[in-house]
Sequence to fold (249 residues):
Amino acid sequence: MQVALFIPCYIDQLYPRVGMATLKILERRGCDVVFPSTQTCCGQPMANTGCSSDAKPLAERFLEIFSPYQYVVAPSGSCVAMVRRHYDEYLEGRPGFAELKAKTFELCEFLVDVMKVDAWGGAYPHKVGLHSSCHGLRELEMGKPSERVGPAFSKPLRLLEMIDQIELVDPKRPDECCGFGGTFAVAEEAVSCMMGTDRLRDHLGAGAEVLTAADMSCLMHLQGLGKRQQMPLQIKHIAEILNESEAKS
Fold:
């Protein structure tokens, strides 16, 4: 199974350990992983601020770079949602675009839906809170948001539950936004900070020692708030937890 790693800008520049953890997880499962070195930003920051003319060339570049590969996997729900849900504006009708959308996955959904992982080796003896990021939850349908009727499910939670000795804690509002929202955190700084602080307090109140998510952008926002307020909460991408637990087995 050939997998092209799509690593978001902020992970590449600030959290490369998340990209390395993703690589190790996929390689242990026999994937032939490649990293196209010419990849650039997916264009999400530009699109979110209404700069469509700036986002379009990046979408076209993404199609050109990643079309040749069997699968495209990224440790970021928001970036994958950009490709699958928002590239239509720029690429509708282009050769290979429909196939690109169908083969681009966030890491957790790739492990659950494509690789059909049903067991995980190793242990992680910590109390962990899962932040369900908005894009993954509501655009990729990686879990059931509270506003929808139906049986509860969560693909990231399903993977975490396979790890031995992990204790998953339940915040009072499990699918509330962290307040980051990309440029929203700049344009509405006070509101963004209040939302993020509220999320941190909810998880701390539930007893979390470690806070995780499938989006490092959300965790970057929460990490900054927690550090400034000296909150006793570790921040780790879910790929880091999955990799650490498995590496110790």
Summary: The chain has a mean pLDDT of 95. The first strand starts at residue 2 and ends at 5. The chain is about 50% helix and 10% strand. The longest helix spans residues 189-205.
